[in-house]
Amino acid sequence: MFNLLFPTAKQALIKKRSSARAALLELVEKDIGNEWWYCSDCKILHPIYTMVGPTIRNYYDPFPLPPVRRLPHRHHSCYLNRRHLYGSVVVVEYPAVRLVMNRHLYGPPIGLPLEIFNVQPTTTTMAHKERPAPLPWEERWSARIRQNELLLCVNRTLNAVGWTDDALRAAIKVEGRELCGHIFTAGSTSAVIHFAIPPSTASKPVPPGPPPSPTSSSPLSPASRPFIPRDSIMDSCKFCCTDHVINIEQRRDHPSRGGKKKKKKVESGDDAIEPEPYWHISITSYHRLGRGRSHDDPVWAAFVSCQGSCRHYVRTKLRCPSGGVKAMWESEE
Fold this sequence. Notes:
Blueprint: H1 2-5, H2 9-14, H3 19-32, E1 36-39, E2 44-47, E3 82-84, E4 91-93, H4 94-106, E5 119-123, E6 137-146, E7 149-160, H5 165-174, E8 178-180, E9 183-184, H6 191-196, H7 199-202, E10 230-236, E11 242-251, E12 254-255, E13 261-262, E14 266-268, E15 271-273, E16 278-290, H8 298-304, H9 324-330
Antiparallel strand pairs: 1-2, 3-4, 5-6, 6-7, 7-16, 8-9, 10-11, 11-16, 12-13, 14-15
């Protein structure tokens, strides 16, 4: 019985196709799910390490503490069954999805709580020797369960205080972040650039030269072509179940520490001078991750795929209309 439930890597490969064994392990998971979880990829039970969050860690740490014990990659490991959105330090892994759904389906103490996906506002600057002034993006993560499926919401905000239009436009084109595995905020096809720059200039490449700084100017973006305010422009990924909403507005209330806004006036003689306006960009993405019962779930497989490997997971085949994920997130339980 012990060899059946906790086989070695070699034994797991031999019994990998046993549907009866998989069904038995799923039943066992319901009883000992506070310490073990069933991996549909490795076909064995993995222990849970609850001393570290299963999704939140520094992606650039070469020696991260793993949340669960997994087989080496040469033994059909589930180690790579995850999605890291470029520009973020949050890694969404399949074990976390299954553990959260286990708690939802079976109740505590099975699995892990939904709150492990809640990430308070965190500034994620991408420092680089060629980019002395990185864009100060701030991101917040939250999660909900609707219709027995896990949904994630990622809100990214950029307060470009002190940045000229030219420098901000050039910086966005070279410093990108992934909204999903198929949509990038940098380059000529950027969602931000597409809505913020007139079409006649949006497709032009970034000219060679020094990296952008807050006060630099660029021949690509003359001052006569300012950013265009946009209000709640929604678009959807064509491959995975991800919707995103973009807001671009000009503000004068400079943000202060603690997340509150305050308006500062500079006294000059008898007159009060208003602070210089700045652009506030907000991108909110909504992700549908599926039920978390199998790593072969097409919704999950589409989420972890990249643009070159998602031909089998087209969004229309997943019965996910444009805007459907956002509507699902905003719906009542």
